[in-house]
Design a protein that fits this description.
Helices cover 57% and strands 9% of the residues. By secondary structure, the protein is mostly helical. The chain has a three-stranded antiparallel β-sheet. A hairpin with a 5-residue loop joins strand 2 and strand 3. The protein is globular. The two termini are 26 Å apart.
Length: 112
């Protein structure tokens, strides 16, 4: 179903999936970049957007638990092992907001 998402949302889901597989509480940006074949800039951009999205999805819980955050020097991603983030639920939020979903959920009155 991720083919219905835009590239940015697919990247966020890819990062979130990768992070969920990790055991340690902090992962370097360099390590993530090497694992996903991304540049440092892309990792930082996608990570900061993902943090903002998780905050908007989970609200105060994300802010209080800090389940995902960038370190102050932006060299590591810090993961809280206290909170479980459901990748499928996040993907469904992205799907609901996607352009494809908006067009396919409305009835079209025109024909080709």
């Amino acid at each position: 179903m991720d083919w219905m998402l835009e590239k940015k949302e697919r990247q966020k889901i890819e990062l979130l999936t990768y992070l969920k597989r990790q055991i340690q509480g902090e992962i370097s940006v360099k390590e993530i970049g090497e694992a996903l074949s991304w540049s440092k800039y892309l990792v930082l951009t996608v990570a900061s957007e993902l943090v903002a999205d998780l905050t908007s999805i989970y609200g105060e819980e994300q802010t209080a638990d800090k389940s995902l955050q960038l370190s102050a020097d932006e060299k590591k991603l810090l993961l809280s092992l206290k909170r479980h983030v459901n990748v499928d639920a996040v993907m469904l939020v992205y799907l609901r907001e996607s352009l494809y979903w908006n067009f396919s959920s409305k009835k079209c009155s025109w024909r080709l």
